Amino acid sequence: MKSLILAVATTVGLLAALPATAQFQKPEDAVKYRKAGFTLMAAHFSRLGAMAQGRVPYDAAAAAANAEIVNDLAKLPFAGFVEGTAGTEKGTPKANVWTERAKFDAGAKKMQDEVAKLVTAAKAGNLDALKAAFGPAAGTCKACHDDFRNP
Ligand code: ASC
User: Fold this and answer.
1) Is the pTM of this model over 0.85?
2) How confident is the model at residue 16 (pLDDT cuts 50, 70, 90)?
3) What tens digit of pLDDT does each residue of 74-123 get?
4) Which residues face 93 on adjacent strands?
């Protein structure tokens, strides 16, 4: 019984540590991983944007749920920015992700911080709070795209 508990605890511990230390067999796997993460983030973030901009009716429960999902996803994609995966095509990361890594990481952190505030705002249950937090969060997406993503 003790060893079963230990095995379960170890497995849970390893799974919990995964996002931060995701390891990839090949660089292409890391690229797929981060793109999948950003694709999902964009899907859920844009649902918040639609409400904040009045394109769909405000739904407090949906706003809170989508903000939570974005918050969870926001931790994931950055492990996929492994060395040697810069590009030149539209939408790919520029080489300065790696030459200015501290600035890139600070941008990621800023995004995660603004998304955390977005969760609090979405849970406040009023559209004005959502609107106020959405803009700064979207701004952190744009800032990194402007600096680090090929147009
Ligand atoms: C989105 C999305 C982004 C950001 C960005 C904000 O909904 O997919 O990449 O917002 O457009 O400027």
Assistant:
1) yes
2) low
3) 999 999 999 999 999 999 999 999 999 999 999 999 999 999 999 999 99
4) 149
Q: How far is CA 41 from CA 44, 99, 119, in A?
A: 5, 25, 14
Q: Which atom of ligand 1 is nearest to the CA of 142?
A: 12
Domains along the chain with CATH numbers: 25-148 (1.20.120.10)
Which residue out of 142, 146, 148 has the highest number of ligand 1 atoms within 8 Å of its CB and is therefore the one to mutate? 142
b/e map 3-40, b = 16+ CB within 10 Å: eeeeeeeeeeeeeeeeeeebebeeeeebbebbeebbeb
pLDDT band at 2 (very low <50, low <70, confident <90, very high): low
Residue 46 in contact with ligand 1 by CB distance below 6 A? yes
Tokens 């559209």: give the residue: 127
pLDDT, position 96: 98
